[in-house]
Inverse folding.
């Protein structure tokens, strides 16, 4: 079993930055890939970023590439999402997720992920 807890969400003006954290417990953190997904009101949950077990490979959606950076610290059992140049359309609940079968290249498919956090709200005002 894996437990995931997100933090770091909040209200920020357009152009600002936030850093989300996701603390993991349970299974050895370095044995699974991690992803960040987001869900805006009335919309489906969508992929934002993912990172493989070692942190050596990352993947981003087109909408966040160049603005968001995913990283992980396996010694601290934590994955991060640094979000810069935020836009109102980034407003959503952000979820971290763990993929136990993740290989060298992390998945962007939400159905590949086995465990999910409870989410943290990010609101970007214009």
């Amino acid at each position: 079993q894996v437990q995931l807890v997100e933090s770091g969400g909040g209200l920020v003006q357009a152009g600002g930055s936030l850093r989300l954290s996701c603390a993991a417990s349970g299974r050895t953190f370095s044995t699974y890939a991690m992803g960040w997904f987001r869900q805006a009101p009335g919309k489906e949950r969508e992929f934002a970023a993912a990172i493989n077990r070692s942190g050596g490979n990352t993947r981003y959606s087109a909408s966040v590439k160049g603005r968001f950076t995913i990283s992980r610290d396996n010694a601290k059992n934590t994955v991060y999402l640094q979000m810069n140049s935020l836009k109102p359309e980034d407003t959503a609940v952000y979820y971290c997720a763990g993929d136990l079968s993740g290989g060298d290249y992390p998945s962007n498919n939400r159905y590949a992920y086995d465990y999910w956090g409870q989410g943290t709200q990010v609101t970007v005002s214009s």
